[in-house]
UniProtKB/TrEMBL annotation:
EC number: 6.3.4.15
Name assigned to this protein: Biotin--[acetyl-CoA-carboxylase] ligase
Pfam hit, one: BPL_LplA_LipB
Residue ranges constituting the BPL/LPL catalytic domain according to the UniProt record: 1-194
Keyword terms of this UniProt record: Ligase
GO MF terms held by the record: biotin--[biotin carboxyl-carrier protein] ligase activity
Gene3D superfamilies from the UniProt entry: Bira Bifunctional Protein, Domain 2 (3.30.930.10)
Organism name: Neolewinella lacunae
Amino acid sequence: MSYANIQLFPKVSYRFDSVDSTNAAAIRAINAGEWPEPGAVFWAEGQSQGRGQGGKHWHATPGANLTVSIVAYPSHLPLHALFALNQLAGIAVAHTVQAFLPAEWQDAVRLKWPNDVYVGQQKIAGILVQNGLRGNQLAWSVLGIGLNVNEAAFPAELAASATSLQILTRRAHDREAVATQLWQALSASYARTAPDQLAALGDQYHHLLYRLNVAAHYREVATGQSFQGTILGVDAAGQLRLGLEDGTEKAFSLQQLLFL
Ligand code: BTN
């Protein structure tokens, strides 16, 4: 098999004024046998049931942001390397955000595991990757991205923890320009899912990790106990590796851990 054609260029765009969820719309098209072409973009101005990680709702004021889902068929990826999809999407969105921020803020753009995009202590983008299998092979993947571009103000419960390009730079941004940057960044990082590039993809992700090598507090969901840990990285299965105070190391899945 040749990996030279591992690329993701958006050629087709399905635009909706309003839809339940762009991820759901893309998955419906796939399940209906329409097989949107690789890189096809489902783009909505507004979503009535925008989906976030862990069944949460995704807030976005209609017409202000990017709420998009990109279809890919990464059948070259072995199932044990699925987390590469979260990594590639996170890296691409982080690089897109960096492109619209001043040079002195570049280091503040981080990936809060698994793939929330942060600027400083505030979330600017969320990513929901959904995959479908055929037998024990990856058949399709939908990369759902919500990027806060021109959100001017968030509801009270999000005001402290969320931000947008407009809030940070005090000016509105052309969403088409942000989208063009995003497609380029996605194509570049998608190419890095080729087998001989996966290690480089993992390194890029590692260096963008929020709180990397920083001691901070976490809570284990099962016990309710809080503890101090230091993020060491992410393992091949996508679990977060924390160094503990007693010198040991433990890996956590998303359901097992809360950031404090
Ligand atoms: C998260 O932060 O929990 C993930 C949020 C992902 C939101 C995007 S918006 C476009 C796409 N469609 C959805 O329903 N969700 C994703």
